Amino acid sequence: MRAIAGCMVLLFLAPMISGCFAGDSVEEMKEDSPFDNLCPNGIANNTWYHYPGAVDALVAPHIINGTSILQGENIPVCTEGTYYGIGFSTFEPTIGITSADNLYMTSWGNGPGGSTAIIRCTDMIEMTNISSYTCENTYQGAVANSNDPYVYVDRWTDRIMKFDMHALAGMTVEWSDDEGETWMPFGLASFATGYSVQDHQTIASSPYNAVLHETTWVFCVNGNWQSPLCSTSNDGGLTWGPEVPGAPVNCNSGGLTGHMVGANDGNFYRGNPSCDGEGYSIYRSTNGGLTWTEHELPTDVTGMADTWNFEEAQVYPDEEDNLHAMWMGADDLPYYSYSFDKGDSWSDPLMVAPPGLNGTGFPAVAAGDSGRVAFAYLGDTGGNTWNGYISIMTDSFSETPLITTVQVNEFGDPLSLETDCGYNRCGGFGDFIDILVDNHGRPWFGLSHNIGNNLQDEGIYGTTMMGPSLRGSTVPLNILPEGGPQTLA
User: Fold this and answer.
1) How many domains is the chain built from?
2) What is the pLDDT of residues 97-121, one digit of tens each?
3) What is the pTM of this model?
């Protein structure tokens, strides 16, 4: 099962072992290691600095022909992970972040009358101690609880969209333009049906010309059809067009899809299996979700995960509209590729997990400025001990990108001990998880802690309490206080 990862490690290390990169001389790291004295208290035991293929950067040579590969944006920064509980249970924890620095997460069944709650956490992004942040339900509407709750924040307008699926029969769409204080139009915004099954929904916006609203909105669902079905709103979610195929004609990708996302250039993107079912593809719409084209990822090298949630290929555009894609290979490890041409071509795939993981699942990806990307996933360190991981690249376009990975939970505080959790639906993770980068450049990972204190399946935000920014300069972010189990309800 580890064959692919092992081969990639050997391929990466072979030139180092022979003492050269393509014939150039290599100097071993000694006293001049950029990792010496990197962190005042030493590198945390749940932080790894590595290169693609799980090559330990602390022991691999970094100087080639007298020049370090760790320079420019591709430099190590002292990084450490942690998490913060929201005090509510969750399910399929999609998240949103507004420009007011508020964080939002779905909470299954905890709203009025058992409706889906939208939990807003304030003073978390820039907090100085853990007692300063608060989380509360903002939703006071009357729409019944959702089978698959979903929240999305339009990063161009700050509109918060609450998107619910009901009994596999249809969706309701509501929104808030005032940080969740009020919701419009009181649970009756839209009810879109047309096929026998509505499941595994995703929703996104982009600045594509909508005529009646600043942004165009598109949702896609599994409509019990050969590919996802998508619908478009040109008035901010009030009305929706008919459901149309979310893939080219005669595409047999299957109806389940990864999270959809909009780009600055107005395009929409989403990932799921290729039309021939033999790999993963990214699907692109340049006309507001009306038609879609297929763009195959280089999964002929990595294979596809043979798991329940294998369809989760993910994609995210950075601020310069470069695309960053992530998926799980046949070895159940996470792979990454980027595109400079909107998905028409892709870089060679890189395995981005750190050393020591037996398998991973639930991929999610987000990007900040050009070439800065964060990957989120669950990983097993043995005995079905499932932890949450964020892997960061500050220069993903480097020939040898440095990857900094944090485990957001400490050893001895697993998020789940359920058998094969990362390969199946388990606890509050449901079908998918979520990650975003805030306006300061810090990644936030929507997760569930399935072994809580008083609550089971408590929603948590995994993040870097210290580390590099994914926006602007790579200078270290301000340091957040340590979270962990003390923040669980």
Assistant:
1) 1
2) 999 999 999 998 887 778 889 999 9
3) 0.91
